[in-house]
Design a protein that fits this description.
It comes from Anaerolinea thermophila (strain DSM 14523 / JCM 11388 / NBRC 100420 / UNI-1). By secondary structure, this protein is α/β, with parallel strands linked by helices. Helices cover 32% and strands 26% of the residues. A hairpin with a 7-residue loop joins β9 and β10.
């Protein structure tokens, strides 16, 4: 592990997000039914051939967009939340996707998450707003090396990361790590605890906790090099001023 990032701290971070999606997965899905502008820009760049794996697919918004655009390539969505996967299946059922769109259960923090797709020849892998929920440099690098192993030379890996420091609203929702009993010295630079809130129809608020890692461009460059990728394109999009998310297109070396 990186200095100061012990296994106990990593497990706490994993459990924070696991608990969030178990408790609030359905509520969260209601806020994520619209495909972000940055994702739409990515879709315009992707070749429409082969099989594409979307890790951390959530409630199926991208799968619906995939079909509505008339794409012919196959789409496989994977997520660890059964609640979100059920929402995704419902979302595409009315579009009569058949075998073109399928969904699989998989926990990206588990070492064997890739076994269900390791024999499928993939054109590319998508990971929108996913890596920033993976705790520790080591686990992120392990995930990226697995992604590398699933792709052919020249295969695509496209991802987006929150740049929440550009949002005063999100920055105001940062909480001290003492709330969850974690010593900040045992975490990595960029690790952040956020307070998530939703207003219910009756006007009451419900909320949960989310772990998010804030990436720097230098950190992403290092991860790409260590995992065996070249960074082909970087752009910002989404939110006020189109600065809330950083998108990158990587190619497998």
């Amino acid at each position: 592990m990186p200095p100061g990032m012990d296994t106990k701290a990593i497990e706490v971070l994993r459990e924070i997000n696991r608990t969030f999606y178990l408790q609030y997965g359905e509520s969260f899905a209601r806020t994520r039914r619209r495909v972000q502008n940055g994702v739409k820009q990515v879709l315009e760049r992707l070749p429409d051939e082969g099989v594409w794996l979307d890790i951390g697919c959530g409630s199926g918004a991208l799968a619906v967009e995939w079909l509505q655009r008339g794409r012919k390539s196959r789409y496989i969505g994977m997520d660890f939340s059964e609640v979100l996967l059920e929402e995704a299946r419902r979302a595409v059922s009315a579009l009569h996707a058949g075998e073109q769109v399928t969904f699989l259960h998989g926990d990206l923090t588990a070492p064997n998450w890739h076994l269900a797709v390791q024999d499928i020849p993939l054109q590319g892998i998508l990971a929108f707003a996913v890596l920033h929920h993976i705790p520790s440099h080591d686990l992120r690098l392990a995930l990226l090396r697995t992604v590398h192993s699933l792709l052919p030379p020249g295969g695509w890996f496209v991802h987006s990361e929150w740049q929440f420091h550009h949002s005063p609203k999100l920055m105001s929702r940062r909480l001290p790590w003492s709330v969850v009993g974690v010593n900040e010295e045992n975490l990595e630079a960029g690790d952040t605890l956020l307070d998530w809130r939703e207003t219910l129809p009756a006007g009451e608020e419900q909320g949960g906790l989310r772990y998010v890692h804030l990436f720097s461009p230098e950190e992403l460059q290092q991860l790409a090099e260590q995992a065996g990728f070249s960074i082909e394109e970087t752009f910002s999009s989404d939110g006020l001023g189109n600065r809330l998310s950083l998108y990158q297109i990587w190619k497998r070396l």
